[in-house]
Design brief:
The N and C termini lie far apart (about 40 Å). This protein has one domain: NAD(P)-binding Rossmann-like Domain (Rossmann fold), CATH 3.40.50.720. Helix 4 packs parallel to helix 5, helix 4 crosses helix 9 and helix 5 packs across helix 9. Helix content is about 45%, strand content about 15%. It is built from 9 helices and 10 strands. By secondary structure, it is α/β, with parallel strands linked by helices. It has an 8-stranded mixed β-sheet, with helices on both faces. Strands 7-8 form a two-stranded parallel ribbon. About 5% of the residues have low confidence. The protein is globular, with a radius of gyration of 18 Å. A hairpin with a 4-residue loop joins strand 9 and strand 10.
């Protein structure tokens, strides 16, 4: 049967963190988790964006238990500051690694020197998950859902270990594809590592299909943005429906470790959220282990050795 937000189990008593929740998919994810009874910490890169996101949620759901915190995933200092605040909570039940940037036209680097898409989409979330891991393990059934993309199965379809930071021959779309493949590999490797240590945490992933959000318009150049606008008319869905795979992955009572959810129609671009197979590039366990070790070295965050 078709899965809807009515299928979200009660989330009362749970604390969730949703990154990049001031707009788009992240905002709808935060809203529906709050509607189901969860306490939600949404993250934004500025006070203005955080306050606006919380205000818009309260306009739709006056009783929502939601607050904002500043988090810039392109800054390891910001990640550490945020994690230090959140780590003081008694427990963290749910972490949704959602925030991201897409197809930046010219190569940019984060303040830590990482290619911006790889640094924001993957390394920032890797560090955040590791720093919040003790708080997650204080919950009885902690859950980490990482948002990937159909792009994980596009582009080079591998991790470019020889030049992870795209210092040579930068290609906006290929760099984005690598970052989302890295996200999916991270979700799967996290699942394997917690299983090896018999820890109760569940790690899985989702992708939203082609959802109409500011992710497409804030990153690509004008020519690409025009192409995306044309394609959106027939191939996309709105941000609310784009959030449904995330919500199902994060709340499904019988979700399996390492499961992956996405839309069911039009080559996974739109439709109802369903369980889908793991694409072949993400099944490379040796590459996932190598990626994990490199992420530990680059971020200075080590967990689950």
């Amino acid at each position: 049967m078709k899965w809807t937000i009515a299928d979200i189990p009660p989330q009362t008593g749970k604390l969730a963190v949703v990154t990049g929740a001031n707009s788009g998919i992240g905002w709808y994810t935060a809203l529906e988790l709050a509607r189901a009874g969860a306490e939600v910490i949404l993250t934004a890169r500025s006070q203005e964006k955080g306050e606006d996101a919380v205000d818009r949620i309260h306009r739709q759901l006056l009783s929502a238990n939601v607050r904002w915190e500043i988090l810039d995933l392109a800054s390891l200092a910001s990640v550490r500051t945020f994690a230090a605040k959140v780590s003081t909570v008694p427990k963290l039940d749910l972490l949704i690694n959602n925030a991201g940037v897409m197809a930046i036209p010219k190569r940019e680097v984060t303040e830590d020197g990482f290619e911006r898409q790889f640094g924001t989409n993957f390394l920032g979330h890797f560090a955040l998950t590791g720093l919040l891991f003790p708080a997650l393990l204080r919950a009885s059934a902690p859950h980490v859902t990482t948002i990937s993309s159909g792009a994980a199965n596009m582009g080079l379809r591998r991790i470019r270990f020889e030049d992870l930071q795209w210092e040579h021959g930068y290609k906006p779309w290929a760099a984005y594809c690598q970052s989302k493949l890295a996200d999916l590999m991270f979700a799967l490797e996290l699942s394997r590592r917690v299983a090896q240590k018999n820890l109760p945490l569940l790690s899985n992933a989702a992708h939203p299909g082609y959802a109409r959000t500011n992710l497409q318009t804030s990153g690509p150049g004008k020519a690409q943005a025009r192409t995306l606008t044309f394609l959106a008319k027939i191939m996309s869905q709105d941000a609310f429906h784009g959030a449904l795979p995330t919500l199902r992955a994060a709340t499904e009572p019988d979700a399996a470790p390492g499961s992956y959810y996405a839309p069911d129609r039009f080559f996974q671009l739109k439709g109802d959220p369903v369980l889908i197979p793991i694409p072949k590039p993400a099944q490379d366990e040796a590459a996932a282990r190598k990626l994990w070790e490199i992420a530990e070295s680059l971020t200075g965050v080590s967990f689950l050795p």
